[in-house]
Amino acid sequence: MEVFFRPRGIAVIGAAREPGKVGYMVLYNLKNSFRGPLYPVNPHAREILGLRAYPSVLDVPDPVDLAVVAVPARVVPRVVEEAGRRGVKGVIVLSAGFREVGGEGVRLEEELVEIVRRYGMRMVGPNCIGVYSPSTGVNATFFDPSRQGFPGPGPVAFLSQSGALGAAVLDWAEMRGVGVSRFVSLGNKADVDEADLLAYLVGDEETRSIAMYIEGVEDGARFRRALEEATVVKPVVALKAGRSAAGARAAASHTGSLAGSYRVYMAVFRQTGVVPADTPGEMYGFALGLALQPPMAGDRVAIITVGGGSGVMASDWLSSVGLRVPELSPGTQARLRRVLLPFASPRNPVDVTGSARDEHLVEALRIVAESGEVDAVMLIPYFNLAGISNELPAKVARVVAELRRQGVMIPIVAPVVGGRRAWEIARRLEREAGVPVYGSEAEAARALWALRVYGRWLQRRGALEDYLERYRRWVLGGGVGA
Amino acid sequence: MEVFFRPRGIAVIGAAREPGKVGYMVLYNLKNSFRGPLYPVNPHAREILGLRAYPSVLDVPDPVDLAVVAVPARVVPRVVEEAGRRGVKGVIVLSAGFREVGGEGVRLEEELVEIVRRYGMRMVGPNCIGVYSPSTGVNATFFDPSRQGFPGPGPVAFLSQSGALGAAVLDWAEMRGVGVSRFVSLGNKADVDEADLLAYLVGDEETRSIAMYIEGVEDGARFRRALEEATVVKPVVALKAGRSAAGARAAASHTGSLAGSYRVYMAVFRQTGVVPADTPGEMYGFALGLALQPPMAGDRVAIITVGGGSGVMASDWLSSVGLRVPELSPGTQARLRRVLLPFASPRNPVDVTGSARDEHLVEALRIVAESGEVDAVMLIPYFNLAGISNELPAKVARVVAELRRQGVMIPIVAPVVGGRRAWEIARRLEREAGVPVYGSEAEAARALWALRVYGRWLQRRGALEDYLERYRRWVLGGGVGA
Question: Is the minimum CB–CB distance between B28 and chain A shorter than 8 Å?
Fold first, then answer.
């Protein structure tokens, strides 16, 4: 698998000179990202985008271990065979016209798989939008960067059975300011599938959590084993589409997947510790929370808010996902009262009020987190208030770092209540303090639910202590939030 | 009520010279918004922000029919009495320190209400963040516009029992690019409450739908009557916080509201045709959809998508809210096949594929909407694809206008799948074609659910035909989307 993310040299078979064509765009994106040798392959060109072109992959000099294929389907078997003969180890087949179109396409795909196996290669696709791994300079996708956002490096790996949806999620992630470690568009999964990539990503240091969009998998037993092996080490979040009869019918016509019973998938997820998500945004948000924060070891949450209404809604949403908002002990309430404003409420929600300053929020965070009375904190600043400054992220980061050094390993999440400026500052909360931010109290509550689902799973497997120890080493060793 | 939104002159009692103070900020905001006479009242100043100051509201020249009050609670009764003597008709009391603090505050509030009644005035507040009505130039709030977004004029009125949350929602609306007709922070509701404002807003031409954030109401019977009278004319969306035990406890400590049983509120909403929302974003999104589109007269939805995965998820979400995604008739499928690409699917979801151009989407929209086989359309463009251009909003607007002229009155909504550029173009879809946009297939499905809830209510009341006739007149008379 490594060859897809850290190739030594890349050939683009079917590199085109016409802007807009798939074979042009993928070369364009690779030229702007890849730091190793890059070889356009096109029998009718001598040079494309300033790079020397070769008539066949057989003519390409060393090193080349990855080929990206963008030629018509009927030509694909021949060029992939040449790649095999040339010693290429991995191929990414972008071309469509295989199993998804039926008939001749099915036969072509079988022929392609036979070739790939014969040469001991691995193949992503066909009928996919490619691979994106920003930290290693691989943008082997054909989306136009003037129309498509590509997020920077980050802790979440993302596998998508739907190409267009995968690209749209990357576009969203770029806007949202959250990065990706590896993205793979799985396409028809004729060779490489979720199980292969899970096995790789478990050992991938840059990947701290794994998100997947799935319509259907072929080999359920293999998928299940891969999940079991992954989730004791790293969190896995899955969005399974085709839940309803209408959705399953749509999936069958989209990827040809037998979507299978949604309930069966949900049972497998429950039994293997996979956190199920309901929307792409939730999938990414869960994965980000699991990447940045420790899981929840119990179900008690403290809410610290500058707005009473947010405290009410957060309480509602936490209750609706089975988490508790317990009253704090008299001792903790007394400690809070000493630092908060006279009209603040030291119960839970801790309402520091709209007159609060940064210090009230961060002191409340410190006192509540140190109390040992809760398993998570939801921190709700409103950045439109006069007392809440641009410096809040840095101040929160200092408190979080202290808490981690003291061994306080409870997750902290923050809903963003507000508009443009609120989001700008909140994103810094994420980058500087490692506190993941969510678009509403509801989303933040759901994210804590995900952290609890995963925490409970680790407890069941007796793996929570080990996981927290690894988290501690990561965060104190320079991870985000310490 | 009119005086709060269209005052002839405004006095700011407690206008301050010190930037950052409430009495400064509200004058600052009014100076930058209000086009009529504005009078700072402050016995220690001769001029504030370049405006002549008066020692008392009694000294203020004509015309003055609205007073905004920002003095300490104990002084409020005296200055409000002076306003009454001066002939002021409405007061907005921003000051806190009344019923919400108990004890002496309760007595002060009673005294205040007695004065307001004695002079036949109406009062918003106390303990509120004010009133905002952009089209009439009233920004009587004290939020700093360098930290707080103020949306432009729009079709949604928004009443909030929580001030800070109300401001945060306005901030969000500004970022999101959706406007507001009237915003009122209700505060302690010592005089003006939801029922008063509902009665006013029903007759307010600029308001096409009403959104409310509620923790608890005092006079349930009055509230219910106001809702009954409003919803046959205009859609009302309500977010009732305090659903859970933890949330109800938080509400009691926040606004002192007896949150009442959530189920009782839900029953009242059901019986009066109010659409319940679960989050502030959803509340605003429902209200916007109801303002721009006709309600759903049945439960059949067509999905038109460029991405298969989105079609699957949209099907799932529509099913989960009780809407149907029926197969289209052979005749309609044949008409679609004639205009779509060879690999497109003319069933439902209509999958125009990632290779589609604008024309495929808009022709599919026309054919499906004209078929009479569905009661709504969910249109899913991906703006990162090469074939989908910046011109799509204008093209959709033309088709929608034609449909409306033909009398096709089914709602059209669009999820935005993607990032920054997708949102920019999608917002134009909203502004130019009146097609409301949502952040995911899930949100768009929920919005259609809201349109169906309201449509069913109008059908039950025998009021759908009249409503659609008013909608037709509005949209053909220059409303957004025709």
Answer: no
Cβ neighbours for B465, distance < 8 A, ≥ 6 positions apart: none
Whether B255 sits inside 8 A of A308 (CB atoms) is: yes
pLDDT in tens, B187-217: 999 999 999 999 999 999 999 999 999 988 9
User: Which of B147, B279, B347 is the closest to A440 by Cβ?
Assistant: B279
Q: What is the DSSP string of B301-329?
A: EEEEES-HHHHHHHHHHHHHTT-B-PPPP
CA–CA separation, A51 and A39 (whole Å): 7
Predicted complex ipTM: 0.91
Chain A residues in contact with B306 by the CB 8 A cut-off are: 164
CB B145 within 8 A of CB B110: no
Nearest CA in chain B to A441: B279
The answer to whether A86 faces chain B, any CB pair under 8 Å, is no
- Tell me, what DSSP letter sits at residue A20? T
Is A243 in Cβ contact with B319 (below 8 Å)?
Answer: yes
Residue contact B312–A215, C-beta within 8 A = yes
> Which residues have CB under 8 Å from B455's CB, separation 6+?
B295, B296, B297, B298, B464
3-state SS, residue B103 = coil
Q: Residue A280: in which H helix or E strand, if any? A: helix A280-292
| Minimal C-alpha gap between A162 and chain B (Å) | 6
User: Measured between CB atoms, which of B143, B325, B419 is closest to A172?
Assistant: B419
Q: Which of residues 131-160 of B touch A (CB under 8 A)?
A: 143-144, 147-149, 160
| Chain B interface includes A342 (CB < 8 A) | no
Question: How far is residue B313's CA from residue A280's CA, in Å, rounded to a whole number?
Answer: 9
- What is the phi/psi pair of residue B72, to 5°? -55, 150
Cα distances (angstroms) measured from residue A169 to each of A183, B252, B413: 10, 40, 20
CA–CA gap between residue B307 and residue B366 (Å, rounded): 19
Show which of residues 158-187 on chain B sit within 8 Å of chain A, judged by CB atoms: 160-165, 167-168, 171-176
> For the domain that residue A78 is a member of, what is the CATH number?
3.40.50.720
> pLDDT band at residue B42, thresholds of 50, 70 and 90?
very high
pLDDT given at position B479: 77
* pLDDT tens track for A282-302: 999 999 999 999 999 999 999
Backbone angles phi, psi at B122, to 5 degrees: -115, 150
- CATH number, domain containing residue A168: 3.40.50.261
Query: Could you tell me the end-to-end alpha-carbon distance of chain A, in angstroms, rounded to an integer?
Result: 32
CA separation for the pair B211, B11 (Å, rounded) = 29
Tell me, yes or no, if B105 comes closer than 8 A to chain A by beta carbon. no
Q: How far A318 CA lies from chain B's nearest CA (Å)?
A: 9
CB A164 within 8 A of CB A292: no
Measure the CA–CA gap between A69 and A46, rounded to whole angstroms: 18
Last residue of a domain, one of B95, B128, B161: B128
As for how many domains chain A has, the answer is: 3
Token pair 């009122």 is found at B184
For B470-481, give the DSSP string: HHHHHHHTT-TT
**What is the span of the domain harbouring residue A210?**
149-292
SS3 for A213?
A: strand
Q: DSSP letter for B251, please.
A: H
Angle at A248 (CA atoms; ends A244, A253), nearest 5 degrees: 150
Count how many Cα atoms sit within 13 Å of the Cα of residue B111 in the half-sphere of its side chain. Answer: 15
| B134 part of a folded domain | no
Side-chain-side CA neighbours of residue A457 (13 Å): 27
**pLDDT surpassing 60 at residue B259:** no
Given B69, B93, B128, the domain boundary residue is B128
Interchain pair B382, A249: CB under 8 A: no
pLDDT at residue A254 is higher than 90 = no
